[in-house]
Design brief:
Structural class of chain A: mainly alpha
Distance between the termini of chain A: 29 Å
Strand content of chain A: 5-15%
Number of strands of chain B: 13
Number of domains of chain A: 2
CATH architecture of the largest domain in chain B: 3-Layer(aba) Sandwich
Radius of gyration of chain A: 28 Å
Number of helices of chain B: 10
Strand order of the largest sheet of chain B: 5-6-7-3-8-9
Largest sheet of chain B: 6 strands, mixed
Radius of gyration of chain B: 23 Å
Largest interface: A-B, 22 and 29 residues
Strand order of the largest sheet of chain A: 2-1-3-4
Distance between the termini of chain B: 37 Å
CATH class of the largest domain in chain B: Alpha Beta
Oligomer: heterodimer
CATH topology of the largest domain in chain B: Rossmann fold
Shape of chain A: elongated
Helix content of chain B: 25-40%
Helix content of chain A: 55-70%
């Protein structure tokens, strides 16, 4: 026990004596928490739309006006010239082209049916699909208005109208920071806990101090626990920092209890540190560790549901992401912060996180050798 | 019972492609300073790391005070003090903190073992609050030795402790080793410096993973079968080439201000006659007392 605490104290002393590391550990997460949620905004506004009106009718004009009045679109002049419209699309001056064919109004009234075409620049897939969706929605609206106007109004309204009003539960105004901050916090805790622990052990390998410890009667668990505890502690500090920033910058007050957040952070950090320990047993120097960590972090970020909802991933990716400990922590933090879930609502996640903690640490301890064969 | 004994230790790297040690056997008596003398890459570090229970041998066995570093590694770790070739203490901890840290790790008490490290500690005392990374090379080595001694080991394994250390600090370091020996500690020390060989009680010459000779630093050179001559002339480079051209030359290499020459057969006069027509000016050729280097050169020439 005494020896374990000795290592803990030594580790903390070493961290606090390296100003660069300390700065990185405090400043970088703060910067990220402040910048990323603001930048990672999916809302697409200001889509450049050009309309090629070959009909020049009152209907086509009113449709164009309706589109231009929407906050999503900015109309771009194309002079009704399809060649110029194509050029605009190629030169990035326009994102979306709406073609209104000649005879649009006539067909709509006489045949009660007509077609429009939309072309989208899908280099930015997000913008293209959202743009098309917004445009279709507006065209649909326009369609309904036209039909209502064309129909002779009957005595009563026999034209059933279903009005859909949506409200977004738990995050009524879809505030992105509320959604992003818990996710980014989960990542930061992973980085601070797991990566720092890994780099720290690898550094001991590099400078050779690990050999001195290896020839000592120090037990494997004493060494590893001595490494785990300080970084577990630092991880908890970064959770606290993250919550403070969330409150000060974005006014986020977790709906759930702080105690629940700390409880899950404590459990999760064991797993995150396990990743770090395992990593440190697999590599020989800090360069390898950094490279390795880079790929792991990519996997953690992209497969953890931070940006893309896991539910919309293909089946195989969903299975893969269920092996990503960050997935669970991101989910848990969002549930607690946004929805106010308690431990009893998150038992499945708790079980997975505990399992990760146990498996990863057991693997790390088994893989850590005090001597090489 | 020898304090350190190895029996045909063999160790290869890269799946057997590189042989670091080949059937190395030697024995160290209790309370002696035993020197492993050899150039870089001779296998000194591998040997010490096997004894320190850090790596496993492919075959062969070793014992330290009766304990096998493979099976009884836990016991071995309690009785050895190991100092790796690279300075490996915590650079950001102070001298004092490093000492306390290693003392506790080794279940030792700084105060109890104070007499053993007193001399060293007194030298380090003025810097005790300085971070280890900011010490001079010599001071670093003293601190490392201090940390290796902190648990009162019976055996010290020192891997090139004086490499990269200034001559004065080297001298002080060796004085310290001799004082430790007087306390009954057995010391195995490796060094690439031939002049340090004479400070050991016994030495082993190691080269390419095999031990060439074992014995006292005084007796080993006497085992040379051929006398060694020191040759010098006005143009030393011309002399070196000319001696090497002489068909009866066994070995000739530069050593300080003269060339050391060994002849396969014939008298030195024959060599002088041979050189007479080739070297302008007088050539001096005197038989000298051979040193450790001469043994190395002899062995290396004989093997190739």
């Amino acid at each position: 026990m005494i020896k374990m605490w000795l290592i803990v104290r030594k580790e903390l002393a070493l961290v606090f004596r390296q100003p660069a590391i300390l700065r990185m550990m405090i400043l970088m997460p703060l910067m990220q928490l402040i910048l990323l949620p603001l930048a990672a905004d999916y809302e697409v506004k200001n889509i450049n739309l050009q309309v090629i009106d070959q009909d020049h009718s009152s209907y086509s004009r009113s449709l164009t006006q309706k589109l231009g009045a929407s906050p999503y679109f900015k109309l771009v002049e194309a002079n009704g010239d399809p060649a110029m419209a194509r050029r605009n699309l190629e030169q990035n001056k326009a994102d979306l082209t709406l073609n209104i064919p000649a005879g649009f109004e006539k067909d709509l009234i006489r045949e009660s049916e007509t077609a429009l075409s939309i072309e989208a620049d899908a280099v930015n897939g997000n913008k293209a699909s959202l743009g098309c969706a917004y445009a279709s929605q507006i065209i649909g609206d326009f369609n309904r208005e036209v039909r209502e106007k064309l129909m002779q109004l009957p005595r009563f309204n026999d034209f059933p109208v279903i009005e859909v009003r949506s409200s977004f539960w738990y995050n009524p105004f879809i505030k992105y920071p509320l959604f992003m901050v818990p996710g980014i916090l989960a990542l930061l805790v992973t980085m601070v806990g797991g990566l720092m622990a890994a780099l720290n052990i690898v550094q001991e390998k590099e400078i050779g101090t690990i050999e001195q410890l290896n020839v000592s009667p120090l037990r494997r668990y004493q060494f590893l626990m001595g490494k785990l505890i300080p970084f577990w502690f630092l991880g908890m500090v970064s959770v606290t920092l993250g919550l403070i920033v969330g409150y000060l910058v974005y006014g986020i007050v977790p709906r759930g209890s702080l105690l629940t957040i700390y409880f899950f952070s404590a459990v999760y950090l064991i797993g995150a540190l396990g990743v770090g320990l395992l990593l440190s047993t697999l590599v020989d120097n800090q360069m390898q560790a950094t490279l390795f960590a880079f790929f792991i972090i990519m996997f953690f970020v992209l497969m953890g549901g931070l940006y893309t909802p896991i539910d919309s991933m293909p089946r195989w990716a969903q299975i893969l992401s269920s092996f990503n400990p960050v997935t669970y922590f991101i989910r848990v933090l969002r549930f607690i912060v946004i929805k106010g879930s308690g431990i009893s609502d998150l038992l499945v996640e708790l079980r997975s996180m505990l399992l990760f903690g146990i498996v990863l640490n057991v693997l790390a301890v088994m893989n850590y050798r005090k001597r090489s064969a | 019972m020898k304090t350190i004994q190895t029996d045909r230790l063999t160790r290869t790297f890269d799946k057997g492609k590189v042989t670091a040690l080949q059937e190395v056997s030697f024995a160290v008596e209790k309370g002696e300073i035993f020197g492993l003398i050899g150039p870089d890459g001779a296998g000194k570090t591998t040997l010490i790391r096997i004894l320190a229970s850090l790596i496993l041998p492919d075959s062969g066995s070793a014992s330290l005070a009766g304990f096998d570093p493979v099976r009884d590694y836990a016991r071995v770790r309690q009785i050895i003090g190991y100092m790796p070739g690279r300075f490996s203490l915590y650079q950001d901890l102070s001298v004092q903190e490093n000492l306390r840290f290693f003392a506790t790790v080794f279940k030792a008490d700084l105060e109890t073992n104070y007499p053993l490290i007193k001399d060293l500690y007194d030298q380090l005392a003025p810097f005790k609050n300085r971070r280890a990374g900011q010490l001079s090379g010599g001071m670093k080595q003293k601190l490392a030795l201090c940390c290796a001694l902190v648990h009162e080991p019976e055996i010290l394994l020192l891997d090139e402790p004086t490499t990269g250390v200034d001559p004065v600090s080297r001298r002080e370091f060796w004085d310290m080793l001799i004082r430790l020996k007087a306390r009954g500690i057995t010391i195995l020390v490796s060094t690439p410096y031939m002049d340090e060989a004479t400070l050991c009680d016994r030495i082993a010459l190691i080269q390419k993973g095999t031990i060439l000779e074992t014995g006292t630093p005084a007796e080993i050179p006497r085992r040379l079968s051929r006398p060694v001559y020191a040759a010098s002339a006005g143009d030393m480079y011309l002399l070196l080439r000319a001696v090497r051209d002489y068909p009866e030359t066994h070995s000739c290499y530069t050593f300080g201000e003269s060339h050391h020459v060994q002849l396969k057969s014939g008298s030195p006069q024959d060599l002088l006659d041979f050189l007479g027509g080739r070297i302008p000016g007088p050539v001096a050729l005197d038989q000298i007392e051979p040193g450790i280097e001469d043994v190395f050169m002899d062995k290396m020439t004989s093997r190739t």
